Structure formats: structure tokens, C-alpha cells
Amino acid sequence: MADLKEADLLHLGLERLHEELGGKMVPFAGYLMPVQYPDGVLKEHLHTRSAAGLFDVSHMGQVILRPKGTMEALKLAFEALMPVDVLGLAEGRQRYGLFTNDGGGILDDLMFTNRGDHLYVVVNAACKAADIAHMTAGMPGVSVEPVTDRALLALQGPGAEAALEAVVPGIAAMRFMDHRVIGDIWVSRSGYTGEDGFEVSVPEAEAEGFARKLLAQPGVAPIGLGARDSLRLEAGLCLYGHDIDTSTSPIEANLTWALQKARKAGGAREGGFPGAARILKELAEGPERVRVGLRPEGRAPMREGVELFADDGTPVGRVTSGGFGPSVNAPIAMGYVARAHATLGTTLLGEVRGKRLPVTVSELPFHPTTYKR
Amino acid sequence: MKYTKEHEWLRVEGDHVVVGITEHAATQLGDVVFVELPETETQVAEGDEVCVIESVKAASDILAPIDGEVVAVNEKLVDNPGLVNEDPTGAAWFFKLKVDDLSVLDQFMDEDEYQDLIG
After folding, report:
1. For chain A, what are the domain ranges?
2. Is the minimum CB–CB distance between A40 and chain B shorter than 8 Å?
3. Phi and psi of B94, rounded to 5°?
4. pLDDT averaged over chain B?
5. A288-373: what CATH class?
6. Residue A3 backbone phi and psi in degrees, to 5
7. Contact A41/B31, CB-based, under 8 Å?
């Protein structure tokens, strides 16, 4: 990233607004993105938890999957790429999904929505080119259509519903993971902070005006990528490329909840996804290592890469995300730990600057989620 | 007040030198969430890593700007690391060094030179 020239970076449609708001722009996943505004990461984080935060996540990949034949064929083709139940997802509902590879590792995680005559998919920015190629190659009977003329905004926090309702009347009736098309605006009740909130896809030409309307609502403040990361970490949510990647299986990643009954052993459409042998075996027998929450006992954060040891000195794992949790008011981390050492309450040692400091295997999320179920 | 190119400030207090980080450095670091201080009565040499500062973004070190003996540390920063952002050039000093010869400070920048550096 460091040697990326500014000229090579992609620019968000809302860049002018970010600069006007005092956003500190940094390269991220090939885009110039606001990492923070003048309030700073800590205040932005706490503001999102107490009021409402507006995030520009337009760098993420929005894709429409349209059937060349039937919708059922499309859903089954999509199921062949993921250990997830696509067929059972009702119209107007969104679900979390994962592309797996033949080794059972994770190629990307994503959200997909049943919109009746097509599916709407949102994938990670850094993976979107690969994901589009993967879907195009893996689903010959499906038209894979990248959406390149829309911004994606997330409005998160206890004040999100009232603020969005003032701009898009009717959304207050939605529940967690509902999706609605309202005129040319696409609204999902979901997010990446652990808070109640919405992700809103808006035509690029209208995005700035829409964002300004939201920012004019009481309690809405712009929030940068820095706080987005600390919010998702407190919520125990994985960051692709850090907590999950091609070397981690969904079972090791503790994402077993994302695999519905229909795709598991004994289910109506058992297996039939890349890496099924490993994934179903790990489901039955338990994985060798598992993603856990970690709470360092002192105040020193344990960041990505910190090695973990049992108290007899045996290496047992590694931190994949870590930092300071502003709402928890303590350092927090996630990482992979050998199953024998992954029981809640186990004390491990994390090596920080040559010193081995105690860290406890802890429950996720670190901060309670407030989804409107 | 004198300044180093590592964005530390140095203030003479009797025969001690008080060391902290500049407002510019504090802003660049972002919200500070953890500070590790040296032990008092430790001899440090110029360039030694004497403090660790962790912000919401990353970890960084404070290097000893000169040789000397650590005679005091600001324990307040351990309980309230955010002081570094609130009052970097006042209440959030990090440590005090006892030095043999205060003329060693002559090599560092004055306020104007430092402002030019960060300009």
C-alpha cells in the first residue's frame, strides 16, 4: 500500500464531502478513504454507540446476479459456491454468506439479498475483482452484473432509525436483515458495528445530497474507517484478510452459525460446496483451532500478529485483530487458538515487545449487539 | 522549550530536563490509549527506547533525546493516557532526566525552527 501513488487510487463519489468535513484521507483497498474526521477515532466510536454514525462504504462491491434461466437455478448455482442456504432465503431478506475454496478456506465473506427476480450481493472492496471473476466462472447460467454507479452508505447506532426515517419514510418498520427497494434507494437493516442500523445504496448522482440530508439530522456525525474497525472488533465481527482468509475455514473462524441446516450433514442439500469435505468433517469433529475473543489483562493492546502461548510456554495461536475497545474501555483482540486452549476463561500469554503478558479467552461480542430482530 | 526532530519537547526545570511529545505528534498519533513509562533511577543513552505509546491506530516509542538518568516519570499517564491528547505540552510530560551539562540542549530546535519543520 505504501508505494501506491496517489494517482493510482480510486476516488469515492463523496470525496469532496469528506474533505469538507475535515476527513483525513488515506489509501485503503485501492481507494482514498476517510480514516477519521476531526473528532478522532475514540469520539467517533463512542458517538456511533450513543447516537448515529454515517459511514461511506462505497468502496465495497455491489453486484446483481440475474438468472439466465430460473431463479431457482440461480439460487442453486450460488449455493454451489457457498456452504449457505440460498434457496431458503425469503424475498426481501438478507443473509451473510462466504465463498469457500476447495481446501475449505474462505475466499471472501459477503451479504446477499433475495430481491424476487434477482439477487443483490455486497462483497469486500479488496476482493471484489476476484469475487466477480469467481462468480462469473462458477455460475455460467447467471448474469453477474457489477453495480458501478451507486454509492453505499451505512447509518449505524441507536439514532439511525429516526434519522433515516426522516429522510426515507417507512424504513422504521424494517427488522434486522430486511431489505427494501424504495424508489431508487436500496435499504438493508444491517451493518458492521454491532448496532442497529442500515446500509443504503444510493445512485451516485444523488449520494452527496442524500448524505448531507442524513448529516443534517439530529445526532448524525460522519465516522471514518478507524472507528469502523474498532466498532466491528467490539462486535466480534471478522475482517477479511485478517480474521478470515484462504487459510481459515468457516468452522475454525467460529462462523458455524452462518451454515444453515440444509447444507450440513443430514440436510436437504448437504455439502456440494467447495471445501465441503473439510468443513463437514470439522463440523462433526471440531476444528483443530478456533477463533476466540481475547482480553489482555493489563492496558497494553495486543495487535494483529501477537503470538500466544500456554502458561508452560507452548505456542498455541496468534492474534488476528486487536486494539483498544473504546466502549469496553480496555484492550480487546481476536485470534486463533488451539482448541485445547480455547475454552472461555483460559489464561494465555501474549508476547508484546518481548514480554509475555496475560490474556484471557473471552466471550464474543465484547460489546452487546442491539440488532432490531 | 526545545524540540527534537522526533517531535519531542524538552523543558529545563532546575538541573532536570522534562520530556514530552509535541501537539503535532499527539495529533498525528490519534487518541492515546496506553503509555508505558521507564523505571526511575535508570540510566538512558540517547536513542534508547524509553516509553511506549499506543494510540487507537498504532504503537510508537519515545526515544531518549539525550543521555541522562530518569529521575521522575508521570504516573498520571498510566491511568489517564488521554492526557497526552488533552495537554501534550503541559500536564502530559513523560519523564524527567538528570543531565550533567544542560548545554547539550543547544543542538535542538527552538520553537520557530520546529514550526518550520512541521509547517
Report:
1. 6-57+149-234, 288-373
2. yes
3. -100, -50
4. 95
5. mainly beta
6. -95, 10
7. yes
> What is the ipTM score, two decimals?
0.86
pLDDT for position A6: 59
Give me the residue from B54, B56, B81 closest to A226, CB to CB.
Answer: B56
Residue ranges in chain A modelled with pLDDT below 50: 1-4
B:4-63 residues touching chain A, CB 8 A cutoff: 30-31, 33-34, 36, 52, 54, 56-59
The full DSSP string for B6-21 is TSEEEEEETTEEEEEE
The answer for residues whose C-beta is within 8 angstroms of residue B15's C-beta and 6 or more apart is B98, B99, B102
The CATH superfamily label for domain A6-57+149-234 reads Probable tRNA modification gtpase trme; domain 1 (3.30.1360.120)
What amino acid occupies position B82?
G
> How many other C-beta atoms can be found within 10 angstroms of the C-beta atom of residue A338?
17
Strands across the sheet containing A185-188 = A179-182, A185-188, A197-203, A150-156, A52-56, A220-222
Report all structural domains of chain B as residue ranges with CATH numbers, in order of start.
2-101 (2.40.50.100)
Q: Rounded CA gap, A144 and B43, in Å? A: 66
Based on its alpha-carbon atoms, the radius of gyration of chain B, rounded to whole angstroms, reads 13
Beta strands in chain A, from DSSP E residues, in sequence order: 10-11, 24-28, 31-36, 52-56, 61-67, 94-100, 106-114, 119-123, 142-147, 150-156, 179-182, 185-188, 197-203, 220-222, 289-296, 307-309, 315-325, 330-338, 347-352, 355-362
pLDDT (average), residues B61-88: 96
**Facing residue for A323 by CB, picked from B56, B78, B82:** B56
Give the number of other Cβ atoms within 10 Å of residue A309's Cβ. 17
Contacts of A299 in chain B (CB under 8 A): 33-34, 78, 81
Q: Taking CB atoms and an 8 Å limit, are A301 and B30 in contact across chains? A: no
- In this complex, is the C-beta atom of A299 within 8 Å of any C-beta atom belonging to chain B? yes
Residue A361 is predicted with a pLDDT of 98
